[in-house]
Amino acid sequence: MTPTSSSPALPASPSVALTRVLAVGSLLGLIVLGLAWELFLAPIRPGGSWLALKVLPLCLPLAGLLKNRMYTYRWVSLMVWLYFTEGAVRAYSDKPPGNFLAMIEVALCLLLFTACALHVRLRLKNAALVQTDEGQNTLSPAPDVKPAG
To answer: In angstroms, rounded to a whole number, what is the distance separating the alpha carbons of residues 115 and 121?
Structure first.
């Protein structure tokens, strides 16, 4: 057994739980915004456009974030920059209301990146603290016992 599989699951600290809620919420916000934007609010073509399919890649990491998988938080923090770039370009090139929706997309992307980066950082920090505590408990020498007599 590996040391991580034999140790019990750590309860999430309030800050880790908050970053998880922010990451999942901002990801869901990006999905809803992308669909509403391209289908109803400001589609490129009247009646909606195929650009709404851009939200499909955002649906993939949702399960991993909900299952609290560290690897998912890491790669989402990289993938989100594609959507940030789209939002930044469309914020300057689209006409209202599209440019306002693009600014919201940029804000949600920044929130998602920050939440994912903090989540990974806090979880690694907490895991290191637990390992340090376990190492001190298991590696501490036995107290000196003086012989009686």
So the answer is: 10
